[in-house]
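Sorry to interrupt, but I need a hand with the structure work. Leave the record below and I will have a look:
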Amino acid sequence: MISSSVSRIPAAVLLLPLIAGGCATLPSSGPTGSEVVSASRESVKLPATLIELDADTIAAANNAATPSALASLAAAGAIDRIGPGDVLQISVFEIGTSLFSSSAAVVSSAEQPAAAGTTLPPITVASDGSIAVPYAGRIIAEGQTTQSLAQLILGRLRGLSEHAQVSVTIRENMTNSVFLLGGVKTPGRIPLSFAREHLLDMIALGGGPLTPPQDTTVRVTRGGRSAEIGLDELLAGSPDDLLLLPGDRIELLSRLQSFTVFGASDKVSEIPFQTRSITLAQAVARAGGPSDRQADPTAVFVFRWAAPATPGAPAVPVIYRLNMLRPESYFISQRFAMRDGDVIYIANARSNQATKLVQIINQLFSPIFTVRELAR
């Protein structure tokens, strides 16, 4: 009686221990949602902070992803000061007694005395900021404007030249220049003009970027501090369109932004942003969304190396979790800003392993049933 009863037990019931034991050994595309959560709490080597994305945490998550703004570098400054390396052109105009008559163009008539104008050879400002002017001696030119330097030279010539006038211009402007570097058509040193160029003006003077704006990052270094912004985010007239100052260094960097998708999606892939900013909703959609066959929609994770709270400290690992079974999560996903290098992981459903095992068993036994049917 016992043997006959056992024979009547359904085969599926007899296979339950096999299913339970086999699920743990089947291949998988990654951990389940609960395994990710437990690992974030128990990992000692890489303790990651797990943050549930909701209305309360979305603002802090986006602030952590916001790059430095150029507006923080804004400062006042002059562009008309003379400095070491500048090449000056000095002209002296005299009436009557002339100190520079050997190279002077003399104009005279019966009513007025002779007038002479002399242009001296170009003079380079020395490393100590001084210049040597004939008959005037050594003068500190660094920090002076062309007008104030002309007055200093004129003061030295009083008593030596009658009715002298002095004109000073900057022939080669080294001090009041910026450096344009990186992915620009014409890199190099570019002097600033009294028109006061802004950041976008200088990029245009350099011929423009070599890469598309959405793939170009602008880095400005001023006074030992640096900040960055995407070229397509830099708007004319905005606070980030800095008024340039002498010594500014502008770098155009080519950075193709992308994110990577793993887990229960159609395929593992690296996907470029294509635009400067992209939301989590857009990123999941470009990845094909969670797979209906194997994904756990309650466990969509974003793995990120976030900036530390203390400047200079190493980056910290953060895991953001989105539960897509909650209707409000679709609004949250539209506000979550993706970051270059983010990893999206869509967890496998817990029932997926059992389904895989049943499919394998069906594939193993279906030939036996086929032969039996054909033999009847």
